[in-house]
Write a structure and sequence with these properties.
- The protein has 318 residues and is α+β, with helices and mostly antiparallel strands.
- It contains 7 helices and 14 strands.
- A 4-stranded antiparallel β-sheet has the order 6-5-11-14.
- A hairpin with a 4-residue loop joins strand 12 and strand 13.
- It is globular.
């Protein structure tokens, strides 16, 4: 019944009377049950249970791993291309980012990237923005808007969609990011392609990016920091951070031009100032999203927007 090479095991002599007789192989103690042994009874009933324990344990571990994976945050090593961490500097070309889900149909994915990229470029090129804030702003930190309305960009987006070129794509978890460009001629486009840095950088840290802790300041420009909470799709979170960055630009410009519809209340301390339903209506022109970042500690995505502060590019809304 068993091969001779089998070293040990239990061989029932009678399959209908296994509790009464059993024998071991290869020098193990042989016993014959004549009246039914307690040890034999325990062996028969406990052996299947013992064999099931590893299976149950393995299944439980797989369930834990599966749950942790589903609810996981970006890992400590969060790699993105250098061209996304910091926007390439190229004269003569308009550059922006596009976001899309992952599709089996490559043509549909390309269409989504171009459409989204054209919308972002149109908003950054020229947009009338109405923003409201409430709460407390901490010095050096981005201010999250209560509501953001962006208008008068749709027509330009439709035109740009036909002119944009996808220069680079990078697949992240649950989505694609793309570097989109509009260049007047092919030589400028080729020059942009030649100088793009495709190296991967780890943007994750236990603290917000340095440009958040110590905001950048250059004469003639105004900056806005956008913050978005963690989302399943990193691209969606960064897109929201870019929207918040434009809102922060509107706030800073409204303060600079003294066109806030409600003034800021007295500072609650040297580090913060209390806002009371403050509102601004501003036309943003020539906005550029120049940085992206992520902090594992506060599970937040960051974007940094830059814009010339010249009077000819900034106007109050009607």
């Amino acid at each position: 019944m068993f091969p001779l090479s089998l070293k040990s095991g239990l061989v029932p002599r009678n399959k209908f009377n296994v509790l009464k007789t059993a024998t071991t192989i290869n020098g193990c103690r042989q016993f014959v049950k004549t009246g039914g042994s307690l040890c034999s009874i325990m062996m028969v009933f406990l052996l299947p249970v013992l064999l099931m324990i590893p299976l149950i344990s393995c299944q439980h571990s797989q369930q834990i791993i599966s749950r942790n994976t589903e609810n996981s945050l970006p890992p400590k090593t969060f790699l993105i291309p250098q061209w996304y961490a910091e926007l390439p500097k190229v004269d003569g070309c308009r550059i922006d980012y596009g976001y899309s889900g992952i599709y089996l149909d490559a043509n549909r994915q390309k269409e989504d990237l171009l459409k989204n990229g054209s919308v972002n470029m149109a908003k950054n090129d020229n947009v009338f923005i109405e923003v409201g804030w409430a709460g407390t702003q901490t010095h050096g930190q981005g201010l999250t808007a209560s509501y953001i309305l962006e208008k008068e960009w749709q027509g330009r987006a439709s035109v740009l969609e036909k002119k944009l070129k996808i220069v680079r794509e990078y697949r992240m978890e649950n989505g694609i990011i793309a570097l989109c460009a509009f260049c007047p001629d092919e030589s400028l486009l080729q020059g942009l392609i030649d100088q793009i840095d495709d190296s991967l950088v780890n943007i994750n840290s236990d603290d917000p990016p340095e440009w958040v802790k110590e905001p950048i300041s250059h004469p003639g420009h105004v900056y806005g920091i956008g913050i978005a909470p963690n989302q399943i799709k990193p691209g969606s979170a960064w897109e929201e951070a870019e929207r918040q960055a434009r809102a922060a630009l509107a706030f800073n410009l409204a303060v600079h031009h003294k066109v806030l519809l409600k003034t800021i209340s007295e500072s609650t301390s040297s580090m913060s100032q209390k806002l009371s339903e403050t509102k601004a209506e501003i036309v943003l022109t020539d906005v550029t999203i120049i940085r992206h970042g992520y902090s594992h500690a506060d599970q937040s995505f960051y974007a940094l927007a830059q814009m010339p502060i010249s009077a000819g590019r900034v106007n109050t809304g009607n």
